[in-house]
Amino acid sequence: QLPGPLFHPPLLWDTIYPQQDIYLLRLPDDLPGGLYWPHVGLYDFDTLDRLPVRLETGTEILDHVTLPPIKVVSARAPDPTQPLQAQFGEWGELLGYDLVAPADPLRPGEQFTVRLYYRSRTAAPGDFTRFLQLYNETAGVAAQTDSPPRQGGNPTSSWMAGEVIVDEATLTIAADAAPGEYTLYLGFYPSPTPAERVPLYSANGERLQHDWLPLATLRLDAP
């Protein structure tokens, strides 16, 4: 829209008074929860070329200004196909997961997707990284992915009490993975220190060994 107040377009602007500019943004009903950064910029109406943004020093940066993030809490009700309860420290809990695999058994090089459903119990004391690992005690790790929830789009430090978080991850089976049965494990660790793990408790309050939660057993076939 034309920037500035309705009866005070840019041609009437001066260097004395700041101009108020108000926008109403409507969020889709199915918008995933997380942090969203508003970008603000101007463009030439005739050419659609964006205007450069300069600092007060005159240094040109990008063609937009990034405002502080806005937290969106999803209204989506959790409906995991595989209900499973566990608690991460004092701040979060798992409600269940969905598992989408192309075939059974899987083969090296193939991918499968895990959709996790969490609920925040309280504000997390910092940023934590989620890890998913497909592991066999003899053959080792066949697939792994580590990431903040929603690939950083909904970090634990932004979680609000009672919020339901949907976190999706895709894992790729290693090309040299040996055939056999593997367990898919889930856990969290403090983002700066992957050697540590967040205490993980089962639904009955028992702390799990190695602070990781077995989700499912998957079979791998030979290439």
Question: What this model shows, in words?
Answer:
Strands 10-7-6-5-12 form a five-stranded antiparallel beta sheet, with no helix packed on it. It has a four-stranded antiparallel beta sheet with strand order 9-8-11-13, with no helix packed on it. Strands 1-4 form a two-stranded antiparallel sheet. It is built from no helices and 13 strands. Helices cover 0% and strands 38% of the residues. The protein is mainly β and 223 residues long. The mean pLDDT is 93. The radius of gyration is 23 Å and the shape is elongated. It has strands spanning 34-36, 39-40, 65-66, 70-72, 82-88, 92-100, 111-120, 128-136, 140-147, 164-172, 180-190, 200-202, 213-220.
Question: What structural category characterises the helix and strand content?
Answer: mainly beta
Radius of gyration: 23 Å
Order of helices and strands: EEEEEEEEEEEEE
Main beta sheet? 5 strands, antiparallel
Percentage of helical residues?
under 10%
Shape: elongated
Q: What would the average pLDDT be, to the nearest integer?
A: 93
Strand order of the largest sheet: 10-7-6-5-12
Q: Are there runs of 5+ residues with pLDDT below 50, and where?
A: none
